[in-house]
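In this supplementary section we document a worked example of the pipeline. Step one takes a protein sequence of length 413 as its only input; no multiple sequence alignment statistics are reported here. Step two produces a three-dimensional model, which step three serialises into structure tokens for compact storage. The input and output of this example are shown verbatim.
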Amino acid sequence: MTKPERLLVMSHGHPELIRGGGEIAAYNLYETYKSLPGIEDTWFLARADSERGASGRIRMHRENEYLWEQGLSNAFIMKAANQHEVTGYFRELIERLKPTVIHTHHYFMLGLEYLKVIKYIDPDITLIMTLHEYMAICPNAGSFLKPGTNQICRSGNYRDHLECSEGKTPEDHWLRKHRFDTFFSYVDQFIAPSQFLADRYVEWGLGKDRITVLPNGQPETIPLAPRALSEGEGRNRFAFFGQINANKGLDVLLAGLAHLKPSDRKSIVLEVHGANLDLQPEDFQKRIKSLAKPLLKDGTLIWRGGYMPSELPERMAHTDWVLVPSVWYENAPMIIQEAFAFGRPVIVSNLGGMKEAVPTGQGGLTLPHGNSQIWAKTMQSLSAETQLWDDLRASIPRPKLLGDVAREILDLC
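The serialised model returned by step three reads:
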């Protein structure tokens, strides 16, 4: 960075309204950019829902923070619902703020069109995009899971996606890929929070020189003290943090614990810190509630519900192990880095960015994804001892700091 920058951060949601990892990562960087030398001004623009739908209007949330009432009219091709206001309200905002750098964190619920509009307004704006998932590659919501079977798929070839998109032709998929290529051409540099995600996009066709691997980063955090144990107690308190949906694997944990004999799980405590179960398909809701019922009754399960970021330290303090049992190729789950920052070992599925974040013997364990029996047996074994927890805690890698990440991103400009 050789000149003062005027920096706009964009996200598909505001973390005060939608508490997702991508939204939190975007806002954390926005707050960090504000404190860096050489930054003249900084703004945050997030997509927001409203009772009037995708009006396209942009309203102030607080000073230097704006909410954009936008959506998608076609999720398959990521087409903005309100095309008119991409060149209306959005264009007016960019012309008024005059950013020199725009760091965007998504196109979901925003559409792809705004990328072109930015460069149309001012070709000299440096446009950076952090890729938080695989929606461009996989039309099944970026999950890399085959519908119906939930079989994992890693193909970036559009011909292999036909069975995942009912009613779509090979031509539809070719045009979809061409559309993403066209709009991605307006991006100057992509950021990948994991090497795994970067490799998938390079396989898909993104130039290797156009994508830089950088973690999301964490604020400076003092690790929490280990949870105090009573005499003879093991490290038996496990916790699940995050959104509750079919890809996150909470049902894997509950199914495993439910199949243990009550006497075998009596020393295990699993706390669920999650939200949005009520927004999931009814059959999934019924499965979670059915599995949870006997575990809640005997005290194995404690359902604490959603949380604000400010509540995380208190909730983490009562936890020994943080569990990330996702059954899909997570990119870089924020909770892994948060657990490391607070000094808590993790147990993760052996997939994608989760496996990458937990090298063998450093800060945690990896287990086979979807294998409820192994997850439950591992929890049973770990709940009876303390030495492995001590060893893994001592080996936790310190997450990269947000300030360092922000400076490296600006060095790309």
